[in-house]
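Show me any protein, fold above all:
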Amino acid sequence: MKTLQNICLMTIALVALSSPRVYSQTADDAIRAFQKEDYKQAAIAFYNVLETTQNPSLVSEAQYGLAASFDKLNLNMAALKYYEDIAVVGSDHPYFDKAVEGLIGIAERVKDDFKIPAVIDALYDPNLSALEKLNSALLQRLHFVIGQHALNRGKIADALTFLNTVQDNNPRYPHAQYLLGLISLGVAQSDTAPNYVQAQKHFESVRNAINIRDDNKDRQDVRDLATLGLARSLYEQAYLLEDGDPKRDAWLGESIHLYKSIPRFSPAWSDSIFERAWAHTVANEYGNALGAIQSLESPYFTDSFYPEVRNLRAIIYYYNCQWDRVNTVIEQTKAELGPVVEQSEALLAQSLPYREWHGILEKSLMAAKKGQRVKGLIPDAIAYQIRADHKFQKMQRFLTELTREGEIFRKDPKLSSSRMGQEMFRFAADTKLAFLDVIGKYTYSRLKGLTGELSDITTRAALISLETKTAETEWLEQGRNIDGQIRKRLPRPFVPDETFQFWWFKGEHWIDELGYYAYTIKTECYE
């Protein structure tokens, strides 16, 4: 028994003496695999180190090595997990700076403005002295992340503080200037008047920082948004002035020019057509406004949702005393939007768990694509609008990334056969399940909000109808005809120059025509 006991003690001692060497050897193997760009093997090896050692130095090295390996493999959510583990430790972690840089890089790649910004915001104050020592370019990128996060939460003073630190030689400068332009316009500030001059300076800074021929899609999209913001600010300024004011005419003309300059088929294009329709209306260019509306109602913009154009069309006919056309548009608006509101309200009344709403949206979009009308789903027009929502798209990318990475960990022969791959598959699945509550809640809120907007539009349509009835009554009292005239074909609309060709619309929408439609409309108001 004594001999056996001595053997056991000797064995334990040998294990204790040899373990650090074994762990160190495993870490060295992981580093060599990483240096050879065998990132899958490196990730597996770094994971094994984490699983088998309590040596703080090796743990820190393995955490960063695993995160960096996942980063190299473009497994963003997996890298995020381990970068976050390092970052929450704080600046005492030897790889804190590199983890912060990794988090910022992932946030920029996947366009995440809710998960990673919240992590960085939470660690900023406790680690301020360490963060201020980061290189200037990285610190400014970090400030942009925090500034955008502050704006999303309505903390305008914090947003201004951080966004204004991003300098013009930083890649996030145009994005920061765009957000500063929105703040100057009073976005997310119900009690603040717009500062149009300041907003226009910020938007112009974006346009000057990004060449119109820049082949980076993200940067070009930001430039288009800045152009849209600049046009909008000029339109709003003009709207506040009296008809006939030279500044009003100049600002409207400039805003219309800017709306037209936004590239066709870009993400901002449909918004530019919609807002241009309003600018044309305010400028009394009713034929151009009706043409813009026709573009938005073409099959190409099925995914876009601009129900307010129905009321705008009615308003244009009202301004031109074409009462019969006003009434026709109003009746069509009620007939089209009424059932949509009823269907949405019935669905909202079911009080379903948030987790289920994303699935309902996907089923609704699939049914819409097949032309099916299925009870208990979101109406086509609202489903398309939710899908096109900027914030929803970011959430959808996050969810899609989790799905993609989960499938990689499940199917890749090398990763799936390792304990690391199996754990990361479970991590992706669990995170996705939890995130369905987040994206589901947003889907529900957008459905509720859009349903309310549609209800408001039908209410405004009723008010237009009431105004029309009042005008018709006045005409009848004066012995005028309210049933509409026999209308003849009017002369063709104005053709700007020889680079444009003209032909009558014959019921078919051609993609090359979109954005160029124009009507000739003659007022039927009496002097």
User: Anything to note?
Assistant: The chain has 22 helices and no strands. The two ends are 120 Å apart (CA to CA). Confidence is low (pLDDT under 50) at residues 1-22.
